TrEMBL record:
Organism whose genome encodes this protein: Alkaliphilus hydrothermalis
Top-level taxon: Bacteria
Stored PANTHER family: GNAT-FAMILY ACETYLTRANSFERASE (PTHR43415:SF3), SPERMIDINE N(1)-ACETYLTRANSFERASE (PTHR43415)
UniProt domain N-acetyltransferase: residue ranges: 8-183
InterPro entries xrefs: Acyl_CoA_acyltransferase (IPR016181), GNAT_dom (IPR000182)
UniProt name for this protein: RimJ/RimL family protein N-acetyltransferase
Length: 200
């Protein structure tokens, strides 16, 4: 499955993406300085296990009509270059990660350095959010930390509002930062979409 707008394509994960992700986890790793950097200290990436798990998942039969809870991000041009992903996970009422039912929370990663600051993240999340809303997801959340100024700009631009703050959550590169949770304000989101439509 794929959905697209003028800038990007969101599509299902394919086998060719495995090598891209291994590259981003082991070579082109600048993104890890900003995407929950403490997790990179806690969890060692094993390329062999990752490839094995992905191939097993790809081999499983799936309902093609299922609601996708994540997509790979590609540039919408002749290259269809794979530049990252957007995904969902769930948090509980305390804004903690949970494997149980909870609040739909979205994330994004664009490790490809040459694809930064070109609007791809904005267009990816706009398309992903609309897809989730169209498929019955009523409330959408996202989370980051107070030091990630780039994603904070994206979050606020799209109409998310801060709803929870955990002070002094983590120390990153010698500085103490807060953990932030945001909930999508659909009125602000719709206003952004209308303005974006007017501005092409």
């Amino acid at each position: 499955m794929e959905i697209k707008n003028s800038k990007i394509i969101l599509r299902d994960f394919i086998e060719a993406d495995i090598d891209d992700r291994i590259h981003w986890e082991t070579i082109e790793t600048e993104w890890q300085l900003w995407d929950a950097p403490w997790e990179n200290d806690e969890n060692a990436f094993d390329p062999y296990s990752y490839r094995k798990e992905c191939l097993e998942w790809l081999a499983k039969k799936k309902d093609e009509n299922r609601v996708r809870m994540g997509f790979q991000i590609c540039i919408n041009d002749e290259s269809r270059k794979h530049i990252g992903w957007c995904n969902t996970y769930y948090i509980d009422d305390n804004c903690e990660y949970t494997k149980e039912e909870g609040h739909c929370t979205i994330g994004i990663g664009i490790p490809d350095l040459s694809s930064r600051r070109k609007g791809y993240a904005t267009f990816s999340w706009k398309l992903f959010i609309q897809y989730l809303i169209d498929n019955g997801i009523k409330d959408i959340y996202t989370q980051t930390w107070s030091g990630d100024e780039r994603v904070l700009g994206l979050i606020k631009k799209l109409g998310f509002e801060e709803c929870n703050r955990k002070y002094k959550f983590k120390t990153v590169r010698g500085q103490i930062y807060d953990a932030l949770t945001f909930k999508l304000n659909k009125i602000k989101y719709n206003a952004f979409c209308e303005l974006n439509k007017m501005n092409g």
